[in-house]
Amino acid sequence: MSAKVTDLTISTLELAKALGLSPTEYQHVCGSLERNPNFAELSIFSAMFSEHCSYKSSKKFFKRFPTQGKRVLQGPGENAGILDIGHGWAIAFKMESHNHPSFIEPYQGAATGVGGILRDIFTMGARPIALMNALCFGSLDFDRTSSIVKGVVKGIGDYGNCVGVPTVAGQTFFHSSYTRNPLVNAFALGIVKHDQIYRGYAKGIGNAVVYVGAKTGRDGVHGATMASKEFSSEKELEKPTVQVGDPFTEKLLLEASLEAMKSGLVIGIQDMGAAGLTSSSFEMAHRAKSGLEITLDKIPTREPSMAAFELLLSESQERMLLVTSPDKIEPLKEIFTKWDLHAEVIGQVVAGNRVKMTLKGETVVDLPVELVTEPTLADRSLSPPVDLKQRWFLDRNKMLVATLSSKFHSLMEEINFANPHKLIEQYDSMVGNRNVGGSQDDSAVIRLRDMGDNEIRLAIKADCNPRVCWLWPREGGRRAVAECSLNLAVRGAEAIGITDCLNFGSPENPEVMWQFSESIEGISETCEALKIPVISGNVSFYNETDGKPIYPTPMIGMVGIIDDKIPLPHSSFYSTQLEIAVIGPTEGGLGGSLMASSWFKRECGQPEETDLAMLERMLKFCQRIRKRKMTYAVHDISDGGLVCSALEMAFHSPFDCTGVEVLIPQEADLDRFLFGETVPRVLIAYEPADRVDIENTASQAGVKFTHIGNTNDSSLITIRQGGAQVFSSKIPDLKTGWSRRWDKFFK
Amino acid sequence: MKTGVVTFPGSNCDDDVIDCLQRTGGFEVHPLWHKETGNLGDYRLIVLPGGFSYGDYLRCGAMAACSPIMTSIKEFADRGGLVIGICNGFQILCESGLLPGALAKNLSLNFICKDVQLKIESVNNPWTNQTVKNQLLSLPVAHGEGRYIIDDQEYETLVSNSQVLMTYQENPNGSSHHIAGICNKNKNVFGLMPHPERSTDLRSKGGLLIWKSIKSHLGMAS
Lengths: 747, 222
Fold this sequence. Notes:
heterodimer; A: alpha+beta; 7-stranded mixed beta sheet; 27 strands; B: alpha/beta; Rossmann fold; about 25% helix; globular
């Protein structure tokens, strides 16, 4: 790009291509406008037509998602989805990716990811009360992985801790496919009264368009375009396109915005996120079917003489655009001044369908709204990978000849089976006085003290198993939803909605598009079976470097409701005199299991299909058992199979001497029994006297009950088959290894 | 009992303190804004809550210590009024000179949030009178800069005046002499890094004893 290009330079195809527009897109723009756009306008198209903002490759697939439900007050398409939780209250939640910036600059990339998702929540009028994150990191052999992990965790912690929203749950996953494309998916949830819900509308001719929050700088210009390209290892440093976060300003903006909304001073409001002022202004005009006139000179800036395209594309953080009536400008300014923030009227809502912007008296932008907000969709081709059947081959013979002990210890070395407490403790999980669960339970549980006497509890969980997604994307999608629902159910919650964050490679690769479409199918059919609506979401494509895409990672964030006062069950062995049973099949599939990956050092085998009918019965069992008013501990069986679930329940036990004895029937397949990962399966530990009650409850719900062992005070895990001991190991030693594996990142 | 809970820009435990005091009962809670000035005469207790006042920029608590309301709080404390500073509130009390010592970055350089065991060192004061010496309490900590630093001479003074009220059983941040909470010489100003407002009806309940001690000292049924 020549240095002489200014806002008013008439664009050429060459310039358009340099900004990432395709010749077809550019011709479409020129044809509709009957002129070539100038450089400032071209910058708008470049950002808004980027995959990140336009969803041009993914949009048509969203129709597949079930989005209806009796609780849905706001489905996909707004800053966040909203669900009714009764008594005049609602919750808003969404998950969003900040992947590309987090590789370039892990600390700021992750921090601003948290900032962005928080603004998506409070822009709806909701007070954010919980954060969650799902992180995928690369190979431990890559020299930058450790600094990426540290930077991301510190970025998330410093931002969320300072704003004062607790991080209540999370997931981490390590795999070499994320080495140059780490994933940072941030989820936020807020609470709002029905009559306090706001949306991003620029409504009412003559109303004022107000800029609030931090000043605009040059950071993040063309950030959305950056997030819509794959990386190459030669030019991986694009630091100037990463934004810098200020959680202190965010906290002030949060309080000031909520106060302004509560005082009835706001008509429409939207965060200036990706593509900054451009996306917020055009989207707000689009939703309200109105036009806007904006004087760019009025924008508070950090740096002098910024060009229009910079003002338009800056992704400076902690800024919002809102619309209010002229008589409310003064009281609105008072609130923002009280919180030491800027509030400047920068324009007004006008009739028609055009957005016009001026700078120094010159019209720099004059565009019809729809041309910008309705880009031409891309029709991508799909094809399954040619080697799918080879991926599904799992060499059982090689597995059967190995000793149980060698397989067991190989599994114990896995970073994906390790205690991330050193990471969790860096997040304030308690601020807000709402978190009632443990940080390592199957799902987080928070109480909504805001509702007074009508207080209810919510359970929150993020899940995705990229191993399974790579082997069989449809099952991967199914399992992400199924696992989340089970994780909520064991804590006593009934799922009421999901948000998704779909992380994939390049949509220009037909195999990636096939993974994408199959994952959506898996998610959708499971949501339909369980009657859970998808209420918000985000797509992140181009997570690939040098043509190597990440494993497909359709991350699911699920929220469930507990509307009774029954105490939460234990999640660990709370006594050394319990019986242990498996609910569901005693044996699980090894295809795509952590055991198979650990043993063969690659993903292999066909994952077993989740039985959705059985899943429904299992959820019913979880609901019924808690109403029996007995004391018990329960834990989902997932990564690493039954043996890892049992060990986790022992590791979290309050007693150092807790031991576990696992009794395997003579005829059972040892590997499938101990390490299989079929969904749905649950491990339950109870007082021996309650066995009949549990057995009956399982039988009534239509799920299999199998007594498979007991706890004791030997501090050993002992595995017997047909009476003979086949394995034994000291639990405290295993726990030490499990607890210390994250020490390589955090001392 | 008229209780003021101060909100500085960046305070984020103010609402938690208000919620906790209302749940505990007996406190008539009034939010106070950092720009307020004037006499706090009819207040019985002032709480400086946790958070990141002014984003922890410059030094934790340094800018909040210069807020207009701190002048009123100093006068209130000089008259013997009860002031408790929790976490960032403790940092503000140290920065404003109402308490000795200073708080520095945790030795690990990382933020730490977890339940810790505290040992009660002294009970003859408004803050821990409902506990017994050497009693163990479980309370959560959540801070990045909670390493309490004090020189040997000042430490001797603290000990001889029974100003060290609680210590960590396992030091999470590298504080001198494992100190978790101290009061001033007159015992009416108390600062601690752990969060008693997060510990009244959730997983740990150690904080309840601190609020009960305050109520008992002010002659209220606990």
